[in-house]
Write a structure and sequence with these properties.
GO terms for molecular function: hydrolase activity, acting on ester bonds; metal ion binding. This protein has 9 helices and 8 strands. It has helices at residues 15-24, 43-62, 87-95, 113-129, 142-155, 173-178, 195-205, 225-235, 240-256; strands at 3-5, 26-32, 67-72, 100-107, 133-136, 163-166, 182-186, 210-213. Strands 1-2-3-4-5-6-7-8 form an 8-stranded parallel sheet, with helices on both faces. The structure holds zinc ion (ZN). Zinc ion binds next to loops.
């Protein structure tokens, strides 16, 4: 089983996770930029983080045979913090980088006017750069949040097939697919979607334009949930080809629209800017 995790925050994960992901079949991933678990106090904090997603983290992933890509943005939560919003002015110089395959995560957290502004501005940045957008949907008041998100996408200059609406569940999947966007599902250990609910969604809505991710981050999460969905699909009677479509070909098709996927993980460089993963090297 080959797996492309289209949304996982590897910065918060250990090297053991990389090894376990490789052993489970993960060969490529996308790491969206998000908040740090604590508020940032200036745009400079974003710049160091973006540089890590563009340099250090791909280097670390490559040591474990995994191709690493990222999406960059001002995240929905910090769109409300005036200390952070100036990062929007700096985004264009980051969005031209090779391994940036989308603008994201953008979207609504609490559906404030500041979030409206940041979402519209970043959908425009995606359109300007010919990039897809990874759009987070709110965890509270889900259906209303999703519908408002779809309205903003419709008013933007970005085509719906360039948008994935993420963190969906049974209540939001139909509206998301009807909008022409891609439908993303985050599988968690004890909240939101689990493997069996995901299989039920796939039975009802098919395997087209569906992305499944582990969204693993600082909180309780499991980077092997993608593999768990593949196994659950097979146990439920889906074919190997169905699994390959959902866990590999769909994310490749979606993020491939950036023209920037690099899926060969040939021989990794032993050093990144003079440093190895051995804490400074031998
Ligand atoms: Zn995320």
């Amino acid at each position: 089983m080959r797996i492309f995790d289209p949304h996982i925050h590897m910065t918060s994960r250990t090297t053991d996770d990389y090894q376990a992901m490789y052993d489970a079949g993960v060969r490529a991933l996308v790491e969206p930029s998000f908040w740090l678990g604590q508020p940032r106090t200036s745009p400079a904090s974003f710049f160091d983080y973006f540089d890590a997603l563009l340099g250090w983290e791909p280097f670390r992933a490559a040591q474990y045979g995994i191709a690493h890509h990222c999406t960059l943005a001002l995240n929905p939560k910090e769109a409300n913090d005036p200390r952070c919003t100036p990062v929007l002015d700096a985004l264009p110089r980051y969005l031209v980088k090779d391994s940036v395959v989308a603008v994201g995560e953008i979207g609504y957290d609490s559906m404030t006017p500041a979030e409206d502004t940041a979402l519209a501005a970043q959908l425009q940045l995606a359109a300007d750069h010919g990039l897809p957008a990874l759009v987070h949907t709110p965890h509270r008041d889900k259906l209303a949040g999703l519908r408002r998100t779809i309205d903003v996408v419709r008013e933007s200059n970005l085509a719906p097939e360039f948008v994935v609406l993420d963190h969906l569940n049974e209540t939001t999947v139909k509206d998301a697919l009807d909008s022409g966007c891609w439908a993303g599902f985050s599988i968690y250990p004890d909240t939101k979607m689990d493997e069996d609910r995901m299989v039920a969604v796939l039975k009802l809505h098919g395997t087209e334009k569906i992305l499944v991710n582990s969204a693993a981050d600082w909180g309780r999460s499991d980077p092997l949930k993608t593999r768990g969905v593949g196994d659950a699909m097979l146990a439920a009677g889906f074919t190997e080809d169905d699994v390959d479509q959902v866990l590999w070909r769909n994310p490749v098709a979606f993020y491939g629209q950036s023209g920037r996927l690099h899926l060969d993980t040939a021989t990794p460089d032993p050093l990144h800017e003079g440093n190895s993963i051995l804490r400074g090297g031998e």
